[in-house]
Structure formats: structure tokens, C-alpha cells
Amino acid sequence: MLGVDQKEGKMRITLKTIFGLEEVLAAELKELGFDHVELLNRAVRIEGTWKDVYYLNLHVRCAISVLVEIKKFRIKSEEDLYQRCMKINWTDYFALDKTFAVKGAVFSEIFSHSQYPFLVVKDAIADTFRKKYDERPNVNIKSPQVMFDVYIRNQDVTISLNTSGLPLFQRGYRESVGIAPLNEVVAAGLIRMSGWDKKSTFVDPFCGSGTLLIEAALMAAGLPPQIERTHFAFKNFANFQPEIWEEILSEVPKRITELPCKIIGSDISAEMVTKTRRNLRALPIGRFIETSVNAFQELSQVEGPGVMISNPPYGERMGEEIEEMYQELGDWMKGSMKGFECWVLSSNKEAFKSVGLRPERKIKVFNGDLECSFRKYSIYEGSKKAKYQNQDENDEPKEEFQGKAHEKEEWVKTVINKKREEKQSFENKRSFDRKNEEARQGSSKPRGGKKYGDRRDRGSDSEYAPKKEYSPRKDKRDFSDKKEFSPEKKSFDRKPDDAYKPKRSSSKYEKRDRVEEGSKETTERPKTTPDVEKKSSEKSSKPISSYKNRSAKDKYGRKD
Ligand SMILES: C[S@@+](CC[C@H](N)C(=O)[O-])C[C@H]1O[C@@H](n2cnc3c(N)ncnc32)[C@H](O)[C@@H]1O
Fold first, then answer.
1. Same domain, 156 and 262
2. 400 and 300 in one domain?
3. Which residue of 145, 271, 410, 490 has the lowest C-beta tally within 10 Å?
4. Is residue 127 part of a domain?
5. Model confidence pLDDT, tens digit, residues 50-80
6. Domain hosting residue 195, numbered range
7. String of b and e for 387-411 (b: at least 16 CB within 10 Å)?
8. Is 313's C-beta closer than 6 angstroms to any atom of ligand 1?
């Protein structure tokens, strides 16, 4: 049996998540049958078996990774970390031919450089292999086959196996992403926070590349979020039990014949809607989602009851125009979304004021580094109408924050600052490694008991010059070698962009198929013949059944 810390046959499993989604994840785990869930900072902890680990990797929607604890200890110095790590039988966990990486989080005065402890652990792993086989496995930072997680708080160190590997928001269903796609884990978290019942209509009139629509459809169909993903690091650990994994996979529904609800999306940009449609094609629920190219201002009443969740452009630099758009959004929700609970995610607090409706709830949510507010507007018909549709700022509800582990505001600042510091550290580390590489030229000795910190002892350990590169299988469903999913290309830290501002030209809300020329696309477009491309954008400009186009002239007194 693999050496992991266990209590009565159960391992300590930590699920990492996004700051502020801890409670949402805890609730999800309880629904999945895990009764004892401990809330941590940006994580929750449960106890379970390897079968649970496989199951969670496939099914959990609001976690970024699933870690299994292997060792916990205390240290007083950097050297202590190396010595303690040399006592771990790393060769039991994975084979020499697998690539590996060490990542994690450090909140400790012991280390002046926040990335340094990962290098220490990586050295210990390499040296353990060298001692046993006279050879060491390669490091691959971008798409390692095996990943270890190091968490250091003050003097306490926890070493875990990262059984997911690449973050779980890399679902594998995205062929195309827009400029500011919502992180899939955030999208799933927002849907859970909204309390959507998975039966009433779900609408996103700013659908972009379709993240919210897809996450909602997967939930409604009871399909796991990772249905298209083949990369899981647990498959590369020495104790992988394929028969248990196959059993878990066999329980996933093979065919979906219908959805219990309507899922409708639209966007002003034809290019975005084409991306959504491409993404939908890969999924068994794709054909049930209705999409169209429309400005929200042009859509008439959607049949309720239902839930709308959107992240419109935040447009921090759009000035008055963005306020105008939020004002129109408020008017439109009031006029066309009766019977709906409308949720809007934005970092632009000023623009929110222009919505002109009283939010029933406000929840603080982090979208990458951006602090956002997720606001609920219930659009009632009849008598309740007045209650929530008169704006009085003083009467607004207090902003909730669902990460109860961080009740103190100070936590927010600390973590954000730490993140910035870590980014800076990473840059420093790169230049540090470059210098180190120059200094060590030719030396490839193992550490041999020398004091840690003598960087010349690091041998041929630079992650940036591995002996041989891992080339993943050319498996259609293994996306780890696709550009779209490389951590650099699809970082969840990417900020929503102002590039979404609708271009004002002859028509105020001119369709984006005329606007998108020269837009900064972040991914390579899959090869599509011009004919197919043309066909799909022609098709996309037709109104869909549930959203009836109304004349912009009638409603807004403007010419189309
Ligand atoms: C922040 S992005 C949404 C990203 C999306 N949630 C995703 O995951 O890809 C905002 C979207 O609003 C769209 N948009 C901008 N103005 C619009 C309008 N007036 N009506 C409808 N969509 C609009 C943009 O084209 C863009 O795709």
C-alpha cells in the first residue's frame, strides 16, 4: 500500500478551491455524501479512500484539485525541510519514467523566497531516486504526469500527492475560449450559489464562450464536469487501480435523451456564439442548449420561471458607456425577465449603481484577482414589483462572503498580497535559476549531505532544462498537449477585459460579427472551412424560439 497518512483506513483528503468558494464546495461535498467536511483557507478537508479520490476527481464541480496527504512535520530551517523530505520513500509513489512537478503555497518566515521550498522538495525527490537507481526522473512544470503539493504555514509542513495534476477547471470540453472566459470552477460555484433548481429555465444573455451554459447543462443532466477530461495525475501514481476507475466511469450515463429544463444563451458577438457552439459540439448535452447572436437589449420576454446568470463586461475603463449599459440591463431585466431571478457578476461597483434595481442579495466572489460582486435581482410581476424595484442604496443588503474561514477582511488583503508577491517571486525565481544555471555548469553531483543552500549542488535539476521532454499520448481526449489548456494560455487569473465593449457605429448595438475584426483571440481557432464558418454565423443570427427579437426601434427609439 502506498505510504499515505491514514486513520482507520481513511486518508486525509484536501480539496483546494477558489478563495470564497469554500462553503459552496463544502455543501457540494455533503451532497456527494461526505458528512465531515472541515473548512480551511481556500480548501476543505474530508476523510476517504482511493475510490473516493477517483470519484471526486471526476464529479466535484467546485474544486481545483484533490490532494492526498502523505506526510506532516515541523521544521525550523530550510535544511530541515530537505532532511525531512529525504526520509520519504518517493520511489514508492511513482516510476522513474514519469515526469513530476512540485507546487503549493508557503506562508512562512523561514523562507525568504516563496518558490524556494518547492525546489528543496524537488531536490529531495531527485536525490532519493538517484540514490536508489543512480538516475532521476525529469521535471515538467507545464504538464507533469505526477504532481506533489507542499503547504507550509509557519513551521508546519504538509506534503500531499496532487491526484488531479492539471487544475480541475481544465475540464477538457473547451475547444475555444473567448478573451475573458469565466473559470469553470467559479461558474459552477455561481450556479450553486444562485440556488437554481435545475428544472426551471436557465438564461445567460452574455454567454461568451458558454461556460455558464455548459456547467448548468452538465448539472441538469447529472453528468460529471470532467466527462471530457482524460488527464488525472492519479493514473500515474504507482498504486493506480484501473478496475476501480473503470467502475466509477461505468456509472456515468452513456446517453442523454433530454434535459429537464431549457438552457438558453446569447451574445452580441457572432464570434463568441460560434465558440460556444464549437464547445457544445464536444458534449452529449450540446444539442439541448439554444444559442443565438443578439444584444440583450434586443431580446423580448423570456418565458419564466427561471434563473439568469451573467457576467457582462466589467468595462473598468469604459467610463459612461458601461454605466449606460448597466442601466439598460436594469431596464431590460425589469421589462423582459419577469418571473426570473437575475444574477449579475461584476467587479464594477460603480456600474452596479446604474442598474437601478434593489439587489436582494450581494455576495463577494473572486474572479481571478478581481474582487467581484454577485448580485441577485428578483424580477417580480404584480404586487411584489415595487418592493425590489425601487433603488435606495442605504436599503441595500450587506455584502455576504461565503468563505467563512476568512470572516476577517484582513484575510482578503493578506491572500491577495501574497498572490501578487508569489507572481513576483516566480519572476525572481526564473532569473535566479538562470544565474544558477550559469554558476553550476557541469556539476551534476547529488547533494551528498552538504548544507542546503549551496546552489552549485543542484546538479542537472533545472526544471527549465529537463533531460527529455514528456510527450503525451496523441489521444484524442487527452487535452494536456493542446494549446488551449496549457496553464499559460488559460490562466484563471486572466482578467475580464474591456475589449467586449460593443462598438458604436451605424447601429448602436451592431452585431459583433462586424465588430470582431482584429480582436485579440487567445487561442488558435480550430480549422474550419470558410463555408462552415459562414454557415454557422448565418444560422446564429436567427432569433431562437424562446428569445424573440423585438425591434430596437420600437423599444429604444433607435434605428437598427
Ligand atoms: C465577460 S464576457 C462573458 C464571458 C463568458 N461568461 C464566458 O465564460 O466566456 C462578456 C460578454 O458580453 C458580451 N456582450 C457585450 N455587450 C453585449 C450586449 N450588449 N449584449 C449581449 N452581449 C454583450 C461580449 O461579447 C462578451 O462575450
1. no
2. yes
3. 410
4. yes
5. 999 999 999 999 999 999 999 999 999 999 9
6. 184-409
7. ebbeeeeeebeeeebbbebbeeeee
8. yes
